[in-house]
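ok trying again, last paste got cut off:
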Amino acid sequence: MPGVFKETRVLQKISMDQDNFLNFWKGLSSRVDSHLNNFLQHQEGVPNRLLDAMRYSVLAPGKRLRPMLVLLTSDALGFENTNPWPAACAVEFIHAYSLIHDDLPAMDDDDLRRGRPTCHRVYGEALAILAGDALLTKAFEILAKSYPPLASAECCLELAKGAGAGGMVGGQVEDLAWEGKPGVRADDHPKTANINHLKTLHDKKTGALIRASLKLGAIVSFASQNQKPPEDLLQILDNYGQNIGLAFQVTDDLLDVLGKCESAGKRVGKDAQKGKLTYPGLLGIEQSKLLAADLCKDAQNLASQLGPNAAPLVDLAEYLVSRDH
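nice, full thing came through this time. structure:
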């Protein structure tokens, strides 16, 4: 059955080289931006300056990885009459809120994000915090309004788990706990850092929202058929998301060591300066590259189980470990 992106369906049936995939990504990303913009129009009762701060952060140039995962998963399943756009935008709102808060002085203390000053540098810390709060709640408002009750409830549950205390937020807490003491963490149960600690940390901080994005794509697709996605499909998506989430983070850590500020769009070298626990710091650069390649291969094998329409998910894994930003 044809999927939701009829104009790109021919591209998606075959695996693309990296240049073609990047062009495909940019085209789809611009459509994501258009939908994000539509959800961030003036609304009665919303202070203009708050809306400005929300728009500043959400509409800044970005990879749109998480909404892309919603869309590509939905397209891979190929159901007619599916509308994945609200779910895709909801996930990006959660991601944007997390970046605003992560950049604050009390957290990662960054002054550059996506190639321009961070939200709190432009609007002040108080409004930046409130803009993040507003985006967090806006995400669940969108899901509640856009889908039938059962589907919206399932989407809200998956997004809450991915973004909450056992997911992204919990991962950020773990990240802060290791900061300045990459070898040993001083808590109730001191333990020496190893690769399993790092994987667990980033499986929450980065991977949990990525896995939720994939599941949302499946939930809204099957909802269009008044069905729930089968558990074996959700497990494949979860495993795929775990692999690309870790591959994404390993590559991010490598870019912080090897990348340039102009291409990365954010300050590089800051992880080492702050004493953060990172893959290059724990494994070295070459072993980190090998790990990213292995994770990419595992993710591609999982995506291939979804059939030919999932070719972009195969290509995506390769792109994530070969990017320069």
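cool. The radius of gyration is 19 Å. The longest helix spans residues 195-223.
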